[in-house]
Amino acid sequence: MLPSSHLSPMNSIVPNTPIAEGHLTDAFSNFIAAADRLERSHWQLSSQVTELRAQLEQRNRALASSMAENEQMRTALQQILDSLPCGVVVVDPIHERIVWSNPEGRRLLDLSIDKPPVWSSLSTAIRTMLHPDRGETWKQGDEHDFYFEDQGKERCVTVGYSAMGERAAKSRVVLTCRDTTAFKGAERQREESRNLVALAEMATVLAHEVRNPLGSLELLAGLLAGDSALSDDSKQCVEHL
């Protein structure tokens, strides 16, 4: 048998073995629990990422659809403005530039059709009235007539003024243009007709006022011509009357 002095180290190790195994078991259990929590967290995170990705794809599709609709609306609006029988011109008087114009607006105001029109291509009268420091200031809803030479003939264009209300575009103004040459011609003809009617009425009154005394003179002259007491010279004068 071994001496008792050699047994004491072994005896000191044996009682500690269950404690070490207990710590190891607890650590392993904690590790498994932490792994389970991490796995659940990972699964929840993956689920949230999948849901967020689905929402993102849905919103991207909605955004693409909205952008497509906006593009269609913009194209439709552009076609409507281009086909309008009146001209539409958007200007920025403060920075002296023409922002946008449809074909009819460029035609009516004699602006360049092949290239973007510049501020100097506007009529001097229009530029003067648009600039608040140079002349009459336009008011909301005002309309003014401007005349242009068109193949040797005078063409009248009525231009309406409307300031844009958006804060970002408060310096921009919409000019609506209409060719009123025929209308102005009809107005002149109407005034001429009114003058002719008034002249005819005045001529009728004058004729009536003149005819009455002439008739009286003729009657009195006829009575004098039948008077036997008149001398030959007097009768001759009466016949002349």
Count of separate structural domains: 3
Basic shape? rod-shaped
Provide the CATH superfamily of the largest domain: PAS domain
Instruction: Examine the secondary-structure arrangement and name the CATH architecture of the largest domain.
Output: 2-Layer Sandwich
Give the strand tally: 5
- The percentage helix is 55-70%
Q: Any idea of the CATH class of the largest domain?
A: Alpha Beta
Mean pLDDT: 82
For the CA atoms, what is the radius of gyration? 52 Å
Secondary-structure element pattern, one letter each: HHEEHHEEEHH
Major sheet attributes? 5 strands, antiparallel
Classification by helices and strands: alpha+beta
Number of helices: 6
User: What is the CATH T-level topology of the largest domain?
Assistant: Beta-Lactamase
- The largest beta-sheet arranges its strands as 2-1-5-4-3
Share of β-strand residues? 15-25%
State the low-pLDDT regions, or none.
1-15
Q: Describe it for me?
A:
With 241 residues, the protein is α+β, with helices and mostly antiparallel strands. 10% of the residues are buried. A five-stranded antiparallel β-sheet has the order 2-1-5-4-3. The chain is 60% helix and 15% strand. The radius of gyration is 52 Å and the shape is rod-shaped. The chain has helices at residues 4-13, 17-83, 103-108, 124-130, 181-225, 232-240; strands at residues 87-92, 97-101, 143-150, 153-163, 173-179. The protein folds into three domains: 21-75; 85-179, Beta-Lactamase; 190-240.
